[in-house]
Amino acid sequence: MALLALENLHLSFGGVAALAGVSLEINAGDFFAIIGPNGAGKTSIFNCISGIYAPARGRIVFDGRDITRLKPHQRAELRIARTFQNIALFRGMSVLDNVKIGRHVHLRSGVLACGLYYGRAAREEQAHRAIVEREIIDLLELQDIRHKIVGTLPYGQQKRVELARALALDPVLLLLDEPTAGMNAEETEDMVRFILYVARVKRLTVVMIEHDMGVVMDISDRVAVLDFGKKIAEGAPAQVQQDANVIKAYLGEDVEVA
Known about the structure:
By secondary structure, the chain is of the alpha/beta class. The protein folds into two domains: 1-79 and 174-188 and 203-258, P-loop containing nucleotide triphosphate hydrolases (Rossmann fold, 3-Layer(aba) Sandwich), CATH 3.40.50.300; 82-170, Rossmann fold, CATH 3.40.50.300. 38% of the residues lie in helices and 23% in strands. It has helices spanning 42-50, 72-77, 95-101, 111-116, 119-137, 155-168, 185-201, 213-219, 237-241, 244-251; strands at 4-13, 16-26, 31-35, 57-62, 65-66, 80-82, 173-177, 205-209, 222-227, 230-235. The strands form two sheets. It has a six-stranded mixed beta sheet, sandwiched between helices. Strands 2-1-4-5 form a four-stranded antiparallel beta sheet, covered by helices on one side. Helix 3 (95-101) runs parallel beside helix 6 and helix 6 (155-168) packs parallel to helix 7 (185-201). The radius of gyration is 19 Å and the shape is globular. The relative contact order is 0.17.
């Protein structure tokens, strides 16, 4: 059984079809990439999976459960985590505090106890901080900057902090929306290394949107290609790379395929 199945998803904004009957199956342990030209519907898929958008038609099944109508926080409780194409961190807070926010779904103390910070709430906060520092901060080599304000950090480090926050949720499924966008070659190499390392150590299923075809072809098990809201190809990276429909979608209708 697939860990995540998208069944005939349809999503429209006014008269524009963002998704038109997209179906995908991602198995546990997969490193699955979704690619396509700008406006193809890639981020719309992530927004449907994470509950930001509700598809007009179709179903989303996670670990055998229909989650199509669940709210975003309910999906987070099922251990579905994501990063964003544009960095979505609290720029005035420290690295550590940003990462700790990813643990919020695991907190069990009441609002009053958390607000007053006593008893069980204090012990729970300390325990979660220890988990974050031991398993996330160390894993992503953020020890030296954990107390720095996020807004003062270089772009590449901010992207790594966002990955850390997603990992703090202790996900089963990790959605990465263009994790290397805007990075130079050295930053991209570092980010890919961290992603592969944490996926292996934590035995994650990863679904990634990425424009860097070198990254996609190097680390993906399977690739799905979207164009104008429709899936036009799916398969192993080398197979997809040679697909005539994929080449036309990226380079234009007049390209001849050898």
